[in-house]
Amino acid sequence: MKKLYLMRHGQTLFNQLGKIQGACDSPLTEAGIRQAEVAREYFQTNQIPLDAYYSSTQERASDTLEIIIGQKEYQRSKGLKEWNFGRFEGESEALNPKRPVGETSYGDSFVPYGGESAKELQQRMNATLTDIMEKDHQNVLAVSHGGAMYLFIQKWLPYEQVAKIKFANCCILEFAYSDRQFKFIQAINHQF
């Protein structure tokens, strides 16, 4: 049985300032760097034998992964990028739209503003992670983003269970993988 450890990047300046951060990027804060160091200790302490490493192409994700794995080689993937929020990028989180009735996310709310739909993002993440897990890997660490992870897990878990998971910075979602199916095992959120 293969394992996927899907992790959110460390805290960024935009996270700290309460700004919408999807396709745009901002650097890790000192707290974000510490969070990545704690995640590194988790993998080391639990002797998790990772044999492949992937990151979103966004700097906050690749910087987080580099703190965890040091000089080891990894692959960057556009498929692991965060939700594109269109013209909402860099604006206050207070401007985020209300969830459409019956939706478990923002649905198509960002599409009229040049952004991506929830369904597009979910399909992109699922296709990317399935392709990664179909390679000759056993235990994979992939660093992505909160919104992207939130929509990915909704494909594999009922929303009532997803709603109970905290997607904190450097949260790790552990999945078993077999026959092109992901089975959620646990969410690991460290105390910082």
Provide a compact summary of the structure:
This protein has 192 residues and is an alpha/beta fold. The protein has 6 helices and 6 strands. The two termini are 31 Å apart.
Description:
Strand 2, helix 3 (59-69) and strand 3 (75-77) form a beta-alpha-beta unit. This protein has helices at 13-17, 30-45, 59-69, 118-133, 146-156, 159-162; strands at 2-8, 52-56, 75-77, 139-144, 172-178, 181-188. 33% of the residues lie in helices and 19% in strands. With 192 residues, it is α/β, with parallel strands linked by helices. The chain has six helices and six strands, in the order βααβαβαβααββ. It has one domain: Phosphoglycerate mutase-like (Rossmann fold, 3-Layer(aba) Sandwich). A six-stranded mixed β-sheet has the order 3-2-4-1-5-6, with helices on both faces. Helix 2 (30-45) crosses helix 3 (59-69) and helix 4 (118-133) packs across helix 5 (146-156). It holds the Pfam family His_Phos_1. This is Histidine phosphatase family protein. InterPro entries: His_Pase_superF_clade-1, His_PPase_superfam, PG/BPGM_mutase_AS, PGM_Phosphatase.
The CATH architecture term is 3-Layer(aba) Sandwich
Could you tell me the strand content as a percent range?
15-25%
Uncertain runs = none
| Mean pLDDT across residues | 96
Overall strand count: 6
Question: What best-fitting shape do the alpha-carbon axes yield?
Answer: globular
CATH topology assignment: Rossmann fold
Q: SS-based structural class?
A: alpha/beta
- Tally of domains: 1
CATH superfamily: Phosphoglycerate mutase-like
Number of helices: 6
Biggest sheet, open or closed, and with what strands and sense? 6 strands, mixed
CATH uppermost class? Alpha Beta
Radius of gyration: 16 Å
User: Helical amount among residues, as a percent range?
Assistant: 25-40%
Query: What distance separates the N and C termini?
Result: 31 Å
Order of helices and strands: EHHEHEHEHHEE
Strand order of the largest sheet: 3-2-4-1-5-6
